[in-house]
Design a protein that fits this description.
- The complex is a heterodimer of chains A (115) and B (112).
- In chain A, 0% of the residues lie in helices and 52% in strands.
- The radius of gyration of chain A is 13 Å and the shape is globular.
- With 112 residues, chain B is an all-beta fold.
- Classes of the chains: A mainly beta (115), B mainly beta (112).
- The interface between A and B is medium-sized, with 26 and 26 residues.
Chain lengths: 115, 112
């Protein structure tokens, strides 16, 4: 158990809908990262937050947004969903803003299926 | 930009065989290097890491040495077990960078 929790575990929805994925980092971790894992694209970094502020953006679509709240939990919002958004979405946390040596602790993931 | 290249899988071995999973990288500066493992149905977890050239990371019988001259970080284990069956990801993080770079993962299947 990494100490990172994600809800829900599974989500099935239809195209065009909007969903929210939730992540609670390990106690004491200030950084939260979101990743998308699919068979064809592998593990893709989406976005990072540190202590409530956005710090880095990766391959995140404009239809996707995220935020980190004062209690440090984070939410990833996916809207206007398409079939291609079906994937595993992971949240990870680390202690501090990455200096390049930080270990990331991953949650169990949310499996999103868009029908 | 930074990139990580891993050998394609799946790698299929018999129990107690020797394992090597190749990983090479391209990065500016001196990145830290990581191996993460993903067991079926779970998230990734850190297996080992090395933060400077010639460092050797080790954990659970797995080892990898940071080779700057060949820009490589190959994962090895002397005797694999069925329980090692998983997907292994090589990753790098450049100093001061907020964005880690992962390889595409290599699936390992160990038969009894």
């Amino acid at each position: 158990d990494s100490g990172v929790t994600q809800t829900p575990k599974h989500l099935i929805t239809a195209t065009g809908q909007r969903v929210t994925l939730r992540c609670s980092p390990r106690s004491g971790d200030l950084s939260v990262y979101w990743y998308q894992q699919s068979l064809d694209q592998g593990l893709q970094f989406l976005i990072q937050y540190y202590n409530g502020e956005e710090r880095a953006k990766g391959n995140i679509l404009e239809r996707f947004s995220a935020q980190q709240f004062p209690d440090l939990h984070s939410e990833l919002n996916l809207s206007s969903l398409e079939l291609g958004d079906s994937a595993l979405y992971f949240c990870a946390s680390s202690v501090v803003v990455s200096t390049g040596t930080d270990t990331q602790y991953f949650g169990p993931g949310t499996r999103l299926t868009v029908l | 930009g930074d990139s990580v290249t891993q050998m394609e899988g799946p790698v299929t071995l018999s129990e107690e065989a020797f394992l090597t999973i190749n990983c090479t990288y391209t990065a500016t500066g001196y990145p830290s290097l990581f191996w993460y493992v993903q067991y079926p149905g779970e998230g990734l977890q850190l297996l080992l890491k090395a933060t400077k050239a010639d460092d050797k990371g080790s954990n659970k019988g797995f080892e990898a040495t940071y080779r700057k001259e060949t820009t490589s970080f190959h994962l090895e284990k002397g005797s694999v077990q069925v329980s090692d069956s998983a997907v292994y990801f090589c990753a790098l993080s450049a100093f001061g960078s907020y964005i880690p770079t992962f390889g595409r993962g290599t699936s390992l299947i160990v038969h009894p």
